[in-house]
Design brief:
The protein is of the alpha+beta class and 711 residues long. The chain has 5 domains: 6-212 and 249-281, P-loop containing nucleotide triphosphate hydrolases (Rossmann fold, 3-Layer(aba) Sandwich), CATH 3.40.50; 285-371, Beta Barrel (Elongation Factor Tu (Ef-tu), domain 3), CATH 2.40.30; 400-468, Alpha-Beta Plaits; 476-608, Ribosomal Protein S5, domain 2 (2-Layer Sandwich), CATH 3.30.230; 613-694, Alpha-Beta Plaits. It contains 16 helices and 38 strands. Strands 18-17-23-14-15-22-19-20 form an 8-stranded antiparallel β-sheet. Helix 3 (88-97) packs parallel to helix 4 (113-125). The radius of gyration is 33 Å and the shape is elongated. It binds guanosine-5'-diphosphate (GDP) and magnesium ion.
């Protein structure tokens, strides 16, 4: 028998801006439940959550951590998450499997940008949410302001369940307006003493109690009737009403905490046990095919992998949630995504970096197994004979790209293995080996994310690397029509070479008319793998060149399209008409016509008002109102075109088009201009001509480095 059945398992995710106290609160929850005998702290670098060497070095969370606690007959799985937007992939995957979010608000700071950003994700998942106003022991804490801001940012559905009698050093009492009780804590927190609400607080407590009841009743007709009849709801009615409203994302109860002084976490856990939904009280998960998969321990076994780690002192683990059935060690499961059968040899309960073997896990629970060979994040595994596939976690697109290389030569293969491993653990980090740019690129979320990748490569893979600027994938094209002819002739001993080609080139565009003065005898359209087209016309009259030489001419043109005449970049959107030429009865051959084709094309290109194109990105920057000026000023220095400003929630959204070449280091520079209060998204928009000066500069740089292909 499992120790906890499905309805006694609660999955919560701790959320909030960095520094709001999530990791400290998790530590309280473990300590209060007696799972750890000493409460660790961030200052002493010994919390259960922030066990990773790098987290202890930096003093804040970077990875999401699975922990669990037991409170009054319930198991609470806790996923502690990092607060910085660079690590939002960890938050999103945690939200995918959690059934309730606990959002901490720092009572000193109020609602911060991280709170807002994370809130957006919780809205996508419609996760039932609780607020915890933390750090009420701080002398600068302002509870009323935190509540005001929470209501203004997240709506009047934020309802106060508790308020502090006093904040700052004197924070010892929490007044609970659901239970109409006061909790009094000793200096070092722990189990509070329950007391009657003192006379001078009664009016305020009554008023908040009424507000809470009305909020609950207004979301439920039956309760509304009862409330009208009796003028009151009892505790069970309130709990049930709250549970329903939380599941529907209609009410967000707010609690009081001092995680540092260990006050308030017991009551919060009691509320999680009794009011927050278990997985089987949430709407059933639907498969990709649209079938509902009820969260039932007796159903067919089905799990979803939400995270993988590979750490020296912890091992290689895959974390999963059981969506249906009961998973037992030794079970064989089919991976719907990769098609392989995997044996679950060991199941674990996880406590930060400690793992305890267990025999089984029921539907709704979260646990880990030794990393399965062909199983990755986002895979669904199920018993034989089913075809369940659960919707994948959609990770955020990258915001920043750098090129990476090893300091020592000959370690390329080791680097590629290290990057493969990094990618396996972190789906928000993308690796691209670009044959065009001849660079290995890392696409990531921001500079902090990159620093973590570098740390892992250096410490876990023992490789020294450096990051460099990624080259820009320029394109070349032409802006007017030009003609050229080229005769290739070589007659030095042995067999000679001869080929002559006349060619016209023009900018190609959709729907362009056929050439009026040429006799078109054949046409090929080549969709170029790097974008755009090459359209190749045979307009030869009177058999001036044999048709069998035309593929060689095309080959020569294509070679130059690959390696554009201006900067060696790919060329695009050109129509080539070959309309005349000469052959030699003996010396003409494929190579001669390829060379003639290439050189004629190169000459024509230079005459055709050639233009370098650069990649342009659509950029959206979200920032608070007071920062739009600074954000736009900075964008102007990057050749950006600001297209408008919109408001989005509590943010202003600056919308711009900006050349990729100007976006190097944008992540850190935006962070420093806005003190981390802004975020941005970028997406490729298209190619645009570079300004004249830049074109000159690029051509000069290229001509210094380019070697002539033909002596
Ligand atoms: N005064 C006070 N400090 C706290 C409280 N909770 C956390 N802290 C401190 O705030 C800092 C950030 O806490 P941490 O748990 O790492 O926050 P996280 O980034 O949300 O995980 C640490 O220095 C904690 O010691 C609290 O209730 N009161
Ligand atoms: Mg933390």
């Amino acid at each position: 028998m499992p120790e906890f059945d499905t309805s006694h398992v609660k999955n919560i995710v701790l959320l909030g801006h960095a520094g709001s106290g999530k990791t400290t609160l998790a530590e309280c929850m473990l300590f209060e439940a007696g799972l750890i005998t000493r409460k660790g702290s961030i200052a002493e670098r010994n919390t259960t959550g922030d066990y990773h060497e790098l987290e202890q070095e930096r003093g804040n969370s970077i990875f999401s951590k699975l922990l669990h606690t037991k409170w009054r007959g319930y198991k609470i799985n806790i996923i502690d998450t990092p607060g910085y937007d660079d690590f939002s992939g960890e938050v999103i995957s945690a939200l995918r499997v959690a059934d309730t979010g606990v959002m901490l608000i720092n009572a000193v700071m109020g609602v911060e940008v991280g709170t807002d950003i994370i809130w957006e994700y919780t809205e996508q998942f419609k996760t039932p949410m609780i607020f915890g106003v933390n750090k009420l022991d701080d002398d600068n804490a302002d509870f009323e302001k935190a509540v005001r801001e929470a209501k203004s940012h997240f709506g009047s559905n934020v309802v106060v369940v508790q308020y502090p009698r006093q904040t700052g050093a004197g924070f010892h009492e929490i007044i609970d307006v659901l239970r109409m009780t006061m909790y009094h804590f000793k200096d070092n927190g722990g189990k509070p003493e329950k007391m009657a609400i003192p006379e001078e607080e009664k009016a305020k407590a009554e008023e908040l109690h009424k507000e809470l009841i009305e909020a609950i009743a207004s979301n439920d007709e039956t309760l509304m009737e009862k409330y009208f009849d009796k003028g009151e709801l009892d505790e069970d009615e309130m709990k049930n009403g709250l549970k329903k409203a939380m599941i529907n994302h209609d009410l967000f109860p707010l609690f009081c905490l001092s995680a540092e002084r260990n006050m308030g976490s017991g009551r919060l856990m009691g509320f999680i046990d009794n009011v927050c939904p278990s997985a089987n009280e949430m709407p059933p998960q639907t498969t990709q095919k649209g079938d509902a998969l009820p969260c039932d321990a007796n159903g067919p076994a089905c799990i979803f992998i939400y995270k993988t780690i590979s750490e020296p002192h912890v091992g290689e683990l895959s974390f999963f949630k059981v969506y249906s059935g009961t998973i037992k060690s030794g079970m064989e499961l089919e991976n719907e995504t990769t098609g392989v059968t995997e044996k679950i040899t060991q199941l674990f309960l996880v406590e930060g970096n400690k793992r305890t073997p267990i025999n089984e896990l029921v539907a709704g629970d979260i646990g880990a197994t030794l990393k399965l060979k062909n199983t990755h994040v986002n895979n669904t595994l199920h018993i034989k004979g089913k075809n369940y596939e659960l919707p994948p976690i959609v990770f955020p697109a990258p915001n920043m790209t750098v090129a990476i290389e090893t300091l020592k030569k000959g370690e390329e293969e080791k680097l590629s293995q290290a990057l493969h491993q990094l990618r396996e653990e972190d789906p928000t980090l993308l690796v691209e080996v670009s044959s065009e740019l001849k660079q290995t690129l890392i696409h990531c979320q921001g500079d902090m994310h990159l620093a973590v990748a570098k740390w892992k490569i250096e410490h876990q893979h023992k490789l020294e690397v450096k990051f460099t600027k990624p080259r820009i994938a320029y394109r070349e094209t032409i802006r007017k029509m030009a003609d050229a002819n080229y005769r290739h002739k070589k007659q030095s001993g042995g067999a000679g070479q001869f080929g002559e080609v006349y060619m016209r080139i023009e900018p190609w565009y959709e729907g362009m008319p056929e050439p009026a003065d040429l006799n078109v005898r054949g046409r090929d359209t080549h969709e170029l793998e790097w974008g755009g087209r090459l359209v190749f016309y045979n307009c030869i009259v009177g058999g001036a060149i044999d048709a069998r030489f035309l593929p060689s001419v095309l080959k020569g043109v294509m070679e130059k399209m690959h390696n554009g005449p201006l900067t060696g970049s790919y060329a695009r959107d050109i129509r080539v008409c070959v309309y005349d030429g000469k052959m030699h009865p003996v010396d003409s051959n494929d190579i001669s016509f390829k060379i003639a084709g290439l050189q004629a094309f190169r000459q024509a290109f230079q005459q055709a008002d050639p233009q370098i194109l650069e990649p342009i990105y659509q950029l959206d920057v979200l920032c608070p109102d007071d920062l739009t000026g600074a954000v736009m000023g900075d964008l102007q220095s990057r050749r950006a075109i600001v297209e408008g400003i919109d408001s989005e929630g509590h943010f202003q959204k600056v919308i711009a088009k900006v050349p990729l070449a100007e976006m190097d280091g944008y992540s850190s520079s935006l962070r420093s201009i806005t003190q981390g209060r802004a975020k941005f998204k970028m997406a490729f928009a298209g190619y645009e001509p570079v300004p004249f000066d830049l074109q000159r500069k690029l051509i000069d740089e290229y001509s210094k480095t380019a070697k002539e292909e033909f002596a």
